[in-house]
Write a structure and sequence with these properties.
alpha/beta; seven-stranded mixed β-sheet; 262 residues
């Protein structure tokens, strides 16, 4: 089965080779039509947008040289961020990242948007000795790596070492507001929905909200990976957002606060 989607998203839909053909109807029915329409459009735009990001990606790669990263789960999706963040290029932007690992996406933000500040929330549970599904073993704690990789940015990075619900609740109590929120923390549907509800309170109307790994473990959809958590959140906040990207990642723009009045 073939879809004209971006490369990362296309891989997720190989149900036949994954011996899960029974999931095709389930996924087609569960994911809304707006997602499919935009995902197909973005797939057609991929080559052009990837080329437009080339010059900055070369600069970004240079800025990352000399830093240590055990994994790269971000660069293949950076073309999306390049396009979505470009309108903020000259603005003083407050960014919230939930789940930062070793800092690749944070560094992208800071370099792409030179007037930005990033609040990084992570409880850094991945320690030296942890081995990923790519069979790569960390040689030092992820928190140590993150701090080393971002120390040159000084007070542009606000590190909150805490589980997401604690970190987000503290930010709400502080009255913080953000222009961009990125969710890449827990990968279970209930946690994704809980993180999204709290982070949505922190996002300004007009702000950008991005989820990673929407299609991760799509062939275990009924077990509650990221995708169902994102969709349950969006169904709970009708009329408050517009889709701006659909694929392996999902991005929406907040258009309104949720009204509790009929």
């Amino acid at each position: 089965m073939h879809f004209a989607l971006e490369p990362e998203a296309s891989k997720a839909f190989d149900f036949v080779n994954l011996h899960k053909p029974e999931m095709i109807g389930k996924i087609l029915a569960d994911i809304p039509a707006d997602w499919w329409r935009l995902a197909l459009k973005r797939g057609l735009e991929y080559s052009k947008l990837n080329q437009q990001a080339d010059a900055f990606m070369n600069y970004y790669a240079d800025r990352c040289s000399g830093k240590y990263f055990s994994h790269d789960w971000f660069t293949s999706k950076a073309w999306i961020w390049h396009e979505l963040l470009l309108p903020y290029r000259d603005n003083a932007v407050d960014i919230l990242e939930l789940g930062v690992f070793e800092g690749r996406s944070v560094i992208f933000d800071l370099e792409m948007l030179p007037r930005s500040r990033v609040t990084a929330v992570d409880h850094f549970v991945l320690k030296a000795g942890w081995t990923s599904s790519q069979n790569v073993t960390l040689t030092q704690d992820s928190e140590t790596t993150f701090r080393q990789n971002t120390e040159g940015y000084g007070d542009r990075v606000d590190i909150r070492v805490a589980p997401s619900w604690i970190g987000l609740t503290e930010l709400i109590r502080e009255g913080r507001q953000f222009d961009i929120c990125y969710i890449d923390a827990s990968h279970t549907a209930p946690d994704v929905m809980a993180d999204s509800i709290l982070a949505w309170k922190l996002l300004k109307v007009g702000g950008l909200f991005i989820w990673d790994d929407f299609l991760l473990d799509i062939y275990h959809w009924d077990d509650g990976p990221v995708g169902p958590g994102v969709l349950n959140f969006l169904r709970s906040f009708p009329g408050t957002f517009d889709f701006v990207h659909a694929g392996w990642q999902v991005a929406v723009r907040k258009t309104a606060e949720l009204s509790l009045m009929s």
